[in-house]
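Quick log. Single chain, no ligands specified.
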Amino acid sequence: MAVMTNVLVRLTIAQSELFSTWPEESLDRLIEAADLLVAEPGTCIHQSGDPANYLYLLVNGWMNLSRAIPEERDFTAGLHLAGAFQGLGPVITQTPHMHTATCKEKTVLVRIPGALLREMVARDGRLSFSLFAALQTRHRRALTLYASAAVHSIQAKIAGLLTSINARSAGGRTSAMINLSQDEIATMLGTRRQVVNRALRDMAAEGAVDVQYGKISITDMEKLQKMSQKID
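-> predicted structure:
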């Protein structure tokens, strides 16, 4: 079991976009210090305001990012899927986590000590290049989603969100189960649950999705992709 864990940690770090340009000796230091964390559904990895002691790499599973907002509600800021990273900004800047990270299903993570990462980057600034490149890629993806949300219909926004999530998970399958509630979709898109519910009913009637409690199944990817292009 220990051998399998070490192999998984090594593969996850070596294949991460964060460390794509790091030399072998630097990767070896990370791998030696990292450990594997297996979290059950509903496990809170960290809360908003907690110190950022670790960088997390998702091996598999889902992680929900949320923040408390007025009226005793949580704002869902996004989702992390396999291959994503969490906590890089707070770790590097030594600031508290902005979001609460909760596992949506059984999730396996590689955990890297933040102090080690900062020490290595401070010692060799060239190691930061791939870190900043990964942050830029994430920022560009977010801007693209926000820009499309400004002109597309609510149905298109939902369809775009679902296709984006599916594309980031398991290689973009033609059909998939997405573990996302209507409340979470509403907060991510800045609208009300009732609006999301009506749009999903119409999408289900057209055969693009199947809506279940807390989950949405993509039943026709081609129809969903066409829906994502509808303009208000």
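Residues 149-227 form a domain with the Arc Repressor Mutant, subunit A fold (CATH 1.10.10.10).
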